[in-house]
């Protein structure tokens, strides 16, 4: 079945919520146990936003590092290699 006309069951929703909760770092799961799906989704969105901020900060730091580095240096080549992988 394509899933298009099929309704998701409460059991499937609970399983998905459980899987989503297990993906959050421990510090975000402090209130383990049964939390509402709404609260879990809000917490997940908050976590994703914090990851975006962290990636942005790391990108800025990397850009600053690359600006101070000789583009032909072995260190620059290592960084480029890491970015390709």
From TrEMBL:
One of its GO terms (molecular function) is protein dimerization activity. One of its GO terms (biological process) is regulation of growth. PROSITE patterns: BHLH. Keywords: Transcription, Transcription regulation. Pfam families: bHLH_ILI. Signal peptide: none annotated. InterPro entries: bHLH_dom, PRE. Transmembrane segments: none annotated. Residues 1-51 form the BHLH domain. PANTHER family: TRANSCRIPTION FACTOR PRE (PTHR46446), TRANSCRIPTION FACTOR PRE5 (PTHR46446:SF28). This is BHLH domain-containing protein. It comes from Zingiber officinale.
